[in-house]
Write a structure and sequence with these properties.
CATH superfamily: Nucleoside diphosphate kinase-like domain
Largest sheet: 4 strands, antiparallel
Strand content: 15-25%
Oligomer: single chain
Strand order of the largest sheet: 2-3-1-4
Order of helices and strands: EHHEHHEHHEH
CATH architecture: 2-Layer Sandwich
Number of helices: 7
Number of strands: 4
Bound molecules: cytidine-5'-diphosphate, magnesium ion
Distance between the termini: 30 Å
Helix content: 40-55%
Number of domains: 1
Radius of gyration: 14 Å
CATH topology: Alpha-Beta Plaits
Length: about 140
C-alpha cells in the first residue's frame, strides 16, 4: 500500500558543521522525498527538551538535548509516497555502526549520538514534529 505522506527531517549539528546539508538534501530528492520547506535554526535547550520529551526517562536524554541545541540544525518537511518509512530506511539504524551500507547514518554518522539526521518514526509523530517547527 502506498500513500502520500509528509515527515520531518533534521540535519543535526554534526552534519551541518561539516557542511553536509547540501549532499543530504540532494540524497532525499534523488530518493523520492521532495523538500517542501527547509530552514536553518538554532534551538534552545528548553526547545530541544520539548522536542525530545518522549525520551525524558532515558539515560541519554540530557546529553541528547544538549547536543541538539549545541549548534545550527536544518529542519525540513519531506513529502512523498510512504515518506515516513522511506525516510527511516534512508536514514539507517540509530547507531551508525549498525546502519546498512548506503544509508545516511552509515555514510555520515560519527557515533550513536552524533548520527547526523533525525526522522519522524510514525505518521502521527510526523504531524506533531512538523507542527513543532513549522507552525
Ligand atoms: O533517532 P532514532 O529514532 O533512530 O533513535 P531514538 O531511539 O528515537 O533516539 C533519539 C536519538 O537519541 C538518537 O538519534 C540518538 O541521537 C540519541 N541516542 C543516544 O544518544 N544514545 C542512545 N543509546 C540512543 C539514542
Ligand atoms: Mg526516534
Amino acid at each position: 500500500m502506498s500513500s502520500l505522506e509528509q515527515t520531518l527531517s533534521i540535519i543535526k549539528p554534526d552534519a551541518v558543521e561539516r557542511n553536509l546539508d547540501g549532499e543530504i538534501k540532494s540524497f532525499y530528492e534523488k530518493n523520492n522525498l521532495k523538500i517542501i520547506k527547509s530552514k536553518k535554526v538554532k534551538i534552545s535547550k528548553e526547545e530541544a527538551s520539548e522536542f525530545y520529551k518522549v525520551h525524558q526517562t532515558k539515560p541519554f536524554y540530557g546529553e541528547l538535548c544538549n547536543y541538539l541545541s549545541s549548534g545550527p540544525i536544518v529542519v525540513m518537511i519531506l513529502e512523498g509516497e510512504n515518506a515516513v518509512s522511506n525516510n527511516r530506511q534512508l536514514m539507517g539504524a540509530t547507531d551508525p555502526k549498525k546502519a546498512e551500507d548506503g544509508t545516511l547514518r552509515k555514510m555520515y554518522g560519527l557515533s550513536i549520538d552524533k548520527n547526523s539526521v533525525h526522522g519522524s518514526d510514525s505518521v502521527e509523530n510526523a504531524k506533531i514534529e512538523i507542527n513543532f517547527f513549522f507552525k
